[in-house]
């Protein structure tokens, strides 16, 4: 009865919070196969340095970016195929398929031998690149050059995320509690790298007093409320640092770096022990699971394998979301590999999915009232629905930080975030048509040329199978 | 929508009257403009206004009681005020007005139950408090001014709120999603404007109750008022650049 009353009288913006979750981190064994995407659109593109049917060892470098960052295989096995797959973030990117075969894992020295330097004598940057850790100071985006970094201001503020903004993901909270010794070491590393920076750390409210005891010496500990609206990263970080960061600007341009506790652990492991970035922490949550479970799995594992390990069969759910319920992206199927940028899986059952979606906007104004950046979401959504992207410019859809609250409260179940994204994409492409990028694709891997999405998307870069001259891709 | 329409019908409305009303409401008021989410004014009010103008004697709560003889005040409270002046309000007890013992359609009479329904809507967050409160506030303020200026001509503001469907308009008609603003400050302006306009129509026009026309008029102001939007967060840079 009380539950019913609570349901009736709850605020419309109420995002359900988990009261309990599994405190253990479960390590999953190596799966039968992994699929490792070679491109993170907007961030980095790796070129494979292995051949088909080659035996690769766990931790071995299998691909390199133009700046020398490396990608490692997370299991030992045989390179079976390279072909484009849809990643969890909805991009079609070339990926390596590796079938498991028992072979000894590479040690740190072997990785560095492959990279060409000694672990003990390597500089910090070399170590990070060889182990697949991208420096927090670099500009996001793949097309920057090494010297570009000098154009940016010095890092003055570092914010360490101690919890995930999504209400269903507990990765960072658990790591914050469990691995505090390593995190403290990581903080020391970071403060060595940026000696003049102020370091902040966000922690969940219930953990504030303990966090101040453990980390208070090194960082300014800040607790944020449990409400999703206050936890949205793009809203919280300007508040914490006191620097106005517009939603289109990158943190780096303002001398702010935002990193997570997980990153600190990786950095710590890489610099001190020489472990590459091949494991990812994820929280699996949703109705079929009694309590959210946090797991540690090799990168490239499919969602199906992860769910099977938690004894969730495909009959018990109707839709899979990678990420959380607010910002997550629904998946087309459960064979999607989990990559470096995924933090959680949210499982939706049949009852939770609305029967009718994308009904007409009734102008109730809930999206407008709930929007943390005060956008006129209803108008943008209506214009975008009918393809009037030019009209949306006046309402500044580019200020959207895609928190998902508008779509959450919408009584017509309209895909508002997607509509805003669509108009942003259209307006952006209109501003910068035909951005030319140098794309040199040379790889020992057969068939790589056909799979490179740079070329297959546009078809006018002159790249055909067997043509190994360096083509210039035109990305539209 | 049909329920809202029924709330407005006088007691002796003939079948063709209701049929024409529904036709205007659904076909002209709603579908012709593009269905739900697209109509500029509330379809119910549009159809009621059309009926009101076309058949004034049919849309008359007092006249509908002509053939009956009950031992109560058989006249619309507002009409009495209009013809006899503010003192005539004494003829009506507050409790009678509140409990619906007055001559009106359902929507105009059952003030207490309508208020409870409206509060329920606010509690379950279907509507926000802004429009009803601003509407009633505007009503009360304007009523107070009128009452102070000429007490013999106008009744107390509370009387105007309790009679003639003010509560119904404040909670059920004005906050209608499609025809009301989406932002908070425009909501307050919209409601306040409605309250003031309602009392002006009641005081100085030929109609005894201007609820229908009031809300139609503020519906038309909605697109203009809704242009008052809050500042978008985190956008300065784009404008400067």
Report on the structure:
The complex is a heterodimer of chains A (476) and B (241). Chain A has 476 residues and is α/β, with parallel strands linked by helices. Chain A folds into four domains: 27-130, no CATH class; 146-273, Rossmann fold, CATH 3.40.50.11540; 366-431, no CATH class; 435-475, no CATH class. Chain A has 17 helices and 20 strands. Chain A has helices at 2-9, 108-115, 124-130, 171-178, 180-193, 208-215, 228-231, 233-241, 261-273, 303-309, 366-370, 377-385, 389-392, 405-409, 416-431, 448-451, 453-458; strands at 25-27, 33-37, 39-40, 44-48, 55-56, 61-65, 70-72, 77-86, 92-100, 157-161, 198-204, 220-224, 256-260, 279-286, 293-298, 319-322, 329-330, 344-348, 435-438, 472-475. In chain A, strands 1-15-14-18-16-17 form a six-stranded mixed β-sheet, with helices on one face. In chain A, strands 2-9-8-5 form a four-stranded antiparallel β-sheet, with no helix packed on it. The longest helix of chain A is centred in the C-terminal third of the chain and has 16 residues, at 416-431. Chain A is globular, with a radius of gyration of 23 Å. Mean pLDDT of chain A is 80; it is low at 434-438 and 455-476. By secondary structure, chain B is mostly helical. Chain B has one domain (2-240). In chain B, 59% of the residues lie in helices and 0% in strands. Chain B is built from 13 helices and no strands. In chain B, helix 3 (43-54) packs across helix 12, helix 7 runs parallel beside helix 10 and helix 8 (130-149) runs parallel beside helix 11 (184-204). The longest helix of chain B is centred in the C-terminal third of the chain and has 21 residues, at 184-204. Chain B is globular. The model of chain B has no long low-confidence stretch (mean pLDDT 80). The interface between A and B is medium-sized, with 32 and 27 residues.
């Amino acid at each position: 009865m009380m539950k019913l009353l609570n349901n009736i009288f709850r605020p419309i913006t109420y995002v359900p919070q988990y009261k309990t979750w599994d405190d253990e981190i479960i390590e999953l064994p190596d799966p039968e196969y992994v699929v490792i995407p070679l491109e993170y659109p907007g961030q980095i593109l790796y070129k494979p340095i292995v051949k088909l049917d080659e035996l690769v060892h766990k931790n071995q470098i299998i691909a390199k970016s133009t700046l020398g960052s490396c990608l490692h295989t997370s299991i030992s096995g045989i390179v079976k195929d390279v072909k484009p797959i849809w990643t969890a973030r909805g991009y079609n990117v070339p990926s390596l398929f590796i079938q498991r075969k028992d072979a000894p894992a590479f040690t740190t020295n072997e990785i560095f031998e492959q990279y060409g330097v000694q672990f003990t004598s390597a500089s910090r940057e070399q170590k990070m690149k060889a182990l697949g850790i991208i420096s927090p100071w670099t500009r996001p985006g793949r097309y920057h050059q090494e010297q570009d970094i000098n154009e940016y201001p010095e890092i003055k503020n570092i914010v360490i995320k101690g919890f995930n903004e999504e209400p269903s993901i507990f990765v960072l909270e658990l790591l914050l509690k469990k691995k505090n010794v390593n995190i403290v070491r990581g903080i020391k590393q970071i403060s060595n790298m940026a000696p003049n920076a102020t370091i902040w750390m966000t922690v969940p409210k219930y953990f504030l007093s303990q966090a101040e005891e453990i980390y208070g010496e090194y960082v300014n500990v800040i607790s944020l409320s449990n409400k999703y609206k206050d936890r949205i990263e793009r809203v919280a970080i300007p508040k914490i640092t006191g620097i106005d960061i517009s939603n289109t600007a990158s943190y780096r341009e303002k001398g702010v770096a935002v990193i997570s506790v997980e990153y600190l652990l990786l950095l710590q492991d890489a610099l001190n022990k020489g472990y590459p970035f091949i494991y990812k922490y994820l929280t699996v949550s949703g109705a079929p699971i009694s309590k959210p479970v946090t797991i540690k799995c090799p990168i490239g594992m499919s969602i199906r394998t992860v769910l099977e390990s938690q004894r969730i069969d495909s009959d018990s759910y109707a839709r899979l979301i990678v990420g959380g319920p607010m910002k997550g992206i629904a998946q087309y199927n459960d064979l999607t590999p989990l990559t470096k940028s995924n933090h959680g899986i949210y499982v939706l059952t049949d009852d939770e999915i609305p029967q009718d979606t994308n009904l007409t906007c009734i102008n109730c104004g809930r999206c407008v009232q709930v929007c943390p950046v005060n956008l006129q979401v209803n108008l943008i959504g209506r214009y975008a629905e009918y393809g009037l992207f030019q009209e949306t410019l006046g309402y500044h859809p580019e200020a959207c930080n895609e928190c998902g609250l508008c779509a959450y409260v919408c009584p017509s179940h309209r895909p508002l975030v997607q509509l805003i994204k669509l108009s942003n994409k259209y307006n952006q492409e209109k501003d910068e048509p035909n951005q030319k990028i140098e794309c040199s694709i040379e790889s020992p891997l057969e068939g790589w040329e056909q799979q490179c999405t740079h070329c297959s998307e546009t078809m006018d870069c002159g790249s055909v199978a067997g043509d190994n001259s360096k083509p210039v891709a035109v990305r539209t | 929508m049909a329920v809202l329409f029924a709330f407005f019908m006088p007691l002796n409305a003939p079948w063709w009257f209701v049929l024409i009303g529904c036709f205007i409401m659904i076909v002209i008021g709603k579908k012709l403009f593009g269905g739900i989410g697209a109509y500029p004014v509330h379809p119910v009010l549009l159809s009621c206004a059309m009926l009101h103008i076309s058949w004034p004697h049919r849309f008359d709560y007092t006249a509908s009681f002509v053939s009956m003889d009950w031992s109560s005040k058989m006249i619309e409270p507002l009409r009495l005020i209009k013809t006899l002046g503010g003192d005539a309000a004494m003829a009506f007890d507050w409790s009678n007005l509140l409990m619906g013992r007055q001559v009106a359609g359902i929507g105009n009479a059952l003030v207490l139950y309508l208020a409870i329904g409206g509060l329920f809507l606010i509690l379950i967050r279907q509507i926000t408090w802004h429009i009803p409160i601003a509407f009633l506030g505007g009503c009360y303020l304007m009523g107070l001014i009128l009452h102070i200026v000429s007490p013999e001509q106008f009744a107390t503001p509370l009387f105007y709120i309790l009679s003639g469907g003010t509560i119904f308009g404040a909670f059920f008609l004005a906050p209608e999603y499609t025809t009301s603003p989406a932002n908070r400050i425009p909501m307050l302006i919209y409601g306040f404007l409605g309250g003031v306009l309602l009392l002006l129509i009641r005081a100085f026009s030929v109609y005894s109750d201007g609820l229908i026309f009031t809300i139609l008029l503020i519906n038309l102001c909605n697109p203009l008022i809704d242009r008052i939007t809050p500042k978008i967060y985190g956008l300065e840079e784009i404008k400067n650049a």
